[in-house]
Write a structure and sequence with these properties.
- The complex is a heterodimer.
- Chain A is globular.
- The longest helix of chain A is centred in the first third of the chain and has 23 residues.
- In chain A, helix 5 packs parallel to helix 7.
- Chain A has a domain of about 150 residues: Rossmann fold (3-Layer(aba) Sandwich), CATH 3.40.50.
- By secondary structure, chain A is of the alpha/beta class.
- Chain B has one domain: P-loop containing nucleotide triphosphate hydrolases (Rossmann fold).
- Chain B is about 35% helix and about 20% strand.
- Chain B has ten helices and twelve strands.
- In chain B, the strands form three sheets. Chain B has a seven-stranded mixed sheet, with helices on both faces.
- Chain B starts with 16 loop residues before the first strand and ends in an 8-residue tail after the last strand.
- The chains are: A alpha/beta, B alpha/beta.
- The interface between A and B is large, with 73 and 51 residues.
- Strand 5 of chain A pairs antiparallel with strand 1 of chain B, so a sheet runs across the interface.
- Chain B: This is RecA family profile 1 domain-containing protein.
- Chain B: Belongs to the RecA family. RAD51 subfamily.
- Chain B: GO terms for molecular function: ATP binding; ATP-dependent DNA damage sensor activity; four-way junction DNA binding; single-stranded DNA binding.
- Chain B: Pfam families: Rad51.
Chain lengths: ~350, ~260
């Protein structure tokens, strides 16, 4: 290097860039993404892989839908500010529990909120029928535009999942999808855990083990991210030990042994749920692939809302990677939005 | 942009759908099948939604089988389609179906239906209910694979009526014995059943209704059986309870795809 640069050991640096130039280029090519609470705390960028972990009913899928709406909504539409990203989402449904009506509900509410704030700013509280018609056509046009940027694939097993990832990869820049995919969502990564764990490939039977399936999945996502930087959001439900939540479980003593992949731990029933929720059952290749982790829990207590006769579901979120050392409570108000505050 | 033609059942799996395609498919093909029990239909937002798996759970004698029989009777009587009733514990009772039909002719509201003789009415309904006894997980797999094959080949029953409701009463009596550690692949089989049911529901626009029993959760409380792995499976979970010596059933929605519920 130094010899090629005519003897000056610093000359070769001239063709590269300064640290500040590198930072400004990185920030412009992969800017931080604004996401709804509680995902807003960690600075997320395209290329990051975020794992949203938590038990059933802890709001994981809801957070995905909120983030999806944030992505597909435009920043501005016909002069009205919506604060979205105006980009495409690819949603890989492994749980087969996705409901498009819920996505539509959240999106319509966000559109109405955006318009509502405009009306309040302009002081337009009185509207006539013509205005209502215009508003309706405006909403429908925007709604349709947003929904065209949402893409969905349903998978019933790991081979379909890996095939779907290959399809997404090969078509990510084609005209079929129009706009490049900015968010890739996987709900939920452990859906086929028990099936894959139980399959033992032999010479005769062309099965795939959990390890090899995970390796393929990681490889395909990596390939996709090289092709097109995107934010990957993945939900993960806890997997309970074989026999630890069966019908006989609940008559036993308050402490017991839990076996999971040759790991033996002794814990009280109170600690059990928390321990199992946070125990990582995914192979190490997946664990090292994930760049950010947030854990969600459901709070026992219910909080009365501002509106009469409405009770909010209360959840806690905790960033464990990077560790933010704080827990945050958030509410999901029906299907509209999340409100959060620090504990 | 993407073509808005909806893929058929044979090729929709693994296909990339746009949000608008999904919405169109849902609004046009995924209707509600009423259970005929007004309170439950209201709770469920219209009834048992096609394309979804609804679980009714509750202790013994809480009314789970009654919900199944009522749903089967109503769908059959209103000629909405064929009902496949997988009976795991000999709970299916034609006499109970007859009682439901006799007592609910106003609900069924089929023109000329209540003018028919009782036996004709019952025959008409029973012709649209295919009842199969299934006593273990392997028999369930066999029946579900046969059903999938016949649906894929567009085989229809009863003069063109397709199966629109699949009932398994109860799923827990088939799954509970295999997930207690005796079978190392128990949970794998449980999730496989779940995936087959969801696939049938989505690709063939079936409503899938399953029942589950409850187990003690400590402190005198009860919770649905089959544990955490199953908890994530149903789209909708409905809990039934009945006070001792009372005929009044209480239904509570634990989970619904369109609503967020406090625990």
């Amino acid at each position: 290097m130094a010899a090629e640069a005519g003897g000056d050991p610093r000359a070769w640096l001239a063709v590269d860039e300064t640290a500040s130039a590198f930072i400004s280029r990185s920030l412009s090519s992969r800017p931080p993404i604004t996401l709804p609470p509680p995902l807003h705390r960690a600075p997320l960028r395209p290329g990051n892989v975020v794992e949203i972990a938590g038990p059933s009913n802890s709001g994981k899928s809801h957070l995905l839908l909120m983030a999806a709406v944030q992505c597909i909504l435009p920043k501005e539409w016909e002069g009205i500010y919506f604060g979205g990203l105006g980009k495409s989402v690819m949603y890989l449904d492994l749980d087969c529990r996705f409901d498009v009506l819920r996505l539509a509900q959240i999106l319509r509410n966000r559109i109405a909120e955006g318009q509502g704030s405009t009306h309040l700013r302009n002081g337009d509280l009185e509207k006539d029928d013509t205005e209502d018609e215009f508003q309706s056509s405006f909403e429908n046009a925007l709604f349709s535009d947003c929904m065209q940027r949402f893409f969905y694939v349903r998978c019933y097993n790991s081979s379909e999942f890996t095939a779907a990832l290959k399809t997404v990869q090969s078509r990510s820049r084609s005209e079929v999808l129009g706009v490049g995919i900015y968010f890739v969502m996987i709900d939920s990564i452990g859906a086929f855990y028990w099936i894959d764990r139980a399959s033992h490939p032999t010479r005769d039977h062309k099965g795939k083990s959990l390890q090899s399936v995970t390796e393929t999945v990681v490889h395909e996502i990596r390939m996709f991210l090289q092709l097109q930087p995107a934010l990957v959001l993945v939900t993960k439900a806890p997997i309970y030990a074989e026999g630890s939540t069966t019908t006989n479980d609940f008559n036993r003593d308050s402490s017991k042994y839990l076996l999971e992949d040759s790991t033996v731990s002794r814990c009280s029933r109170q600690e059990e749920g928390r321990t199992l929720s946070y125990r990582d059952y995914m192979p190490s290749i997946w664990q090292s692939f994930v760049t950010h982790r947030i854990n969600l829990q459901v709070e026992e207590a219910e909080v009365p809302s501002v509106q009469e006769n409405e009770v909010l579901s209360t959840y806690t979120s905790e960033w464990v990677q990077p560790s933010l050392k704080t827990k945050e409570k958030f509410f999901i108000v029906d299907v509209r939005s999340c409100y959060s505050y620090f504990v | 942009m993407m073509n808005h033609d909806q893929p058929s059942a044979k090729d929709r799996c693994g296909k990339i759908w746009s949000g608008m395609q999904l919405l169109k498919d849902t609004t046009e093909s995924k209707h509600f099948l009423p259970t005929g029990l007004e309170g439950i239909d209201t709770l469920l937002g219209g009834g048992l939604r096609q394309g979804q798996l609804t679980e009714v759970t509750g202790p013994s004698s809480s009314g789970k089988t009654q919900v199944c029989l009522h749903s089967a009777s109503l769908v059959a009587a209103k000629h909405m389609g064929v009902v496949m009733y997988l009976d795991t514990s000999n709970s299916f009772s034609p006499s109970r179906v007859a009682t439901i039909i006799d007592g609910s002719s106003d609900v069924f509201g089929q023109r000329g239906f209540d003018l028919q003789p009782k036996d004709m009415r019952l025959k008409s309904v029973m012709r649209s209910i295919i009842c199969e006894s299934v006593f273990d997980i392997f028999a369930l797999f066999e029946v579900l694979h046969q059903l999938e094959g016949s649906l894929l080949n567009d085989k229809v029953n009863n003069g063109g009526s397709k199966i629109c409701l699949l009932i398994i009463d109860s799923i827990s009596s088939l799954l509970a014995p295999i997930i207690g550690g005796k079978y190392p692949q128990g949970r794998s089989m449980m999730i496989s059943v779940a995936m087959i049911l969801k696939k049938l529901a989505d690709e063939h626009n079936l409503s899938v209704l399953v029942t589950n029993h409850t187990v003690s959760a400590g402190n005198g409380a009860v919770k649905p059986a089959l544990g955490e792995s199953w908890r994530a499976v149903p789209h909708v979970r409905l809990v039934l309870s009945r006070e001792c010596g009372s005929n009044i059933c209480t239904a509570t929605v634990l989970k619904h795809t369109l609503k967020v519920f406090p625990l």
